[in-house]
Amino acid sequence: MNPLLPYDLPLDGAHLIEASAGTGKTFTIATLVLRLVLEAGRTIDEILVVTFTRAATAELRDRIRRRLAEALALCSSSTPPDADPTGLAAHLARRRAAGHGPADLQALTAALRSFDTAPIFTIHGFCQRVLQEFAFESGMSFEATLAEDSLALQREIVADYWATRTYAAPRSLVDYLIHQANVTPTTLDALADAAARARGIELTPAPSSGDAAIDPADLDASVVAWQAARAAVAARLDAGRTEAEAILSHSPALRHGSYTRTNVPRWLDQVDAWARGHATPPSEDAIREKWVRFTSDAVDAATKDGHATPHHPLFDAIDRLRDVDDVVSEAMARWAEGVRLGLLPYLRRETDVRRRRANAQTFDDLLHDLA
Question: Residue 231 in 3-state DSSP?
Fold first, then answer.
């Protein structure tokens, strides 16, 4: 890393200056502006200076003006170079010795006289000025206003999106979104925040409506079938639990590594309580891993070689529940993913419509439109 010598730094090309707080960044910028006026022959309105905040812009404008005024005063005085610790007097003395004194005096006078035209901006102020100066090319309205708070509009649009997707949806689908898929107004807000930070970057998977092929009415019909299958399990438990428990706990055809006299009644109690209580599809993993032990496939897997697999109407009812649960689970997962992915097209479309209606732009709009 080379030490910074502001009076020797080349005025062409790109340069990166690294400095911590209080080490003279503003001084260096003011010195470079002065050198561009004197050495590069630039008028003050041809030198663009951009910083971050309005306060920094005001300070920078004041410091550059004072630097130019100080240089003008030194051009007209006989201050010894050694008396100026900033090195400006010595720099101007070298230029006078090279015959640039009269030209420097003229350039500094002109710079101060027209200093109000100096383009010293915040980043967003510069973007706004360029877009307004080239309004026909950029498509920016002459009367567009700057909306500094873009988050409020984003939150409003996300809330509207959530309402449009859930208002007419069956309760079971909304419950699934919130409790199993973790698609909520809060997570959608977080997704919108991430998309705003990634503006202009291609997102994967590509934002789309995602669930266009999934009809909520069809999902609702699947939910009805799921509830019917769950009720059928409860009915089979009423009609034949004792027999099914005896088969699973005592049948000589089964290996009783897990189908023990302790496990079987405990699992059946848990399935029975779930089948009679309030539940929404698809089954949560904790309960599914209990009733799936009573499917025909699970019983068949526990059957000893050379023995016939035991059968029972309860096993058949749980087979039906498993099949319906699989269908509902896949369909709801696709629908939830569609809700998640559908946010971004909706957000972009509504943001554009509402900002045009309000004739407003945000800071991010300015950067994006100028780029």
Answer: helix
| CB 307 within 8 Å of CB 148 | no
SS3 111: helix
Distance (Å) of CA 7 to CA 33, 38, 40, 59, 348 = 11, 12, 13, 22, 48
Q: pTM of the predicted model, to two decimals?
A: 0.60
Q: Crossing angle for the helix pair 151-166 and 313-358, nearest 10 degrees?
A: 140
- What's the CA gap between 2 and 247, in Å, rounded? 84
Q: What b-and-e string marks burial along 251-270, b requiring 16 or more CB atoms within 10 Å of the CB?
A: beebeeeebeeeebeebbee
Contacts 24+ apart (CB under 8 A), 5-9: 6/31, 6/32, 6/35, 7/31, 7/35, 7/87, 7/91
Respond yes or no on whether the N-terminal peptide bond of residue 282 is cis (omega within 30° of 0).
yes
pLDDT digits (tens, 9 = 90+) for 338-368: 899 899 999 989 988 887 776 666 656 655 6
Residue type, position 337, single letter? E
Residue with tokens 């710079």: 111
Q: Are strands 120-122 and 49-51 parallel, antiparallel or unpaired?
A: parallel
User: 110 with 37: CB under 8 angstroms?
Assistant: no
pLDDT tens digits, one per residue of 43-100: 999 999 988 888 888 999 999 999 999 999 988 776 676 667 778 888 888 898 899 9
Helices and strands (DSSP H and E) totals, the chain: 15, 4
H/E stretch holding 273 reads helix 263-276
- The residue count of the chain comes to 371
**What distance in Å separates the CA atoms of residue 270 and residue 268, rounded to the nearest whole number?**
5
Question: Is 157 within 8 Å of 351 (Cβ atoms)?
Answer: yes
Distance CA 164, CA 180 (A): 20
Cα 130 from Cα 265, distance rounded (Å): 76
Contact between 59 and 67 (Cβ < 8 Å): no
SS percent in the chain: helix, strand, coil, step 5: 65, 5, 30
DSSP string, 171-200: HHHHHHHHHTS---HHHHHHHHHHHHHTTT
Say what the alpha-carbon torsion angle 223, 225, 227, 232 is, to the nearest 10 degrees.
-170
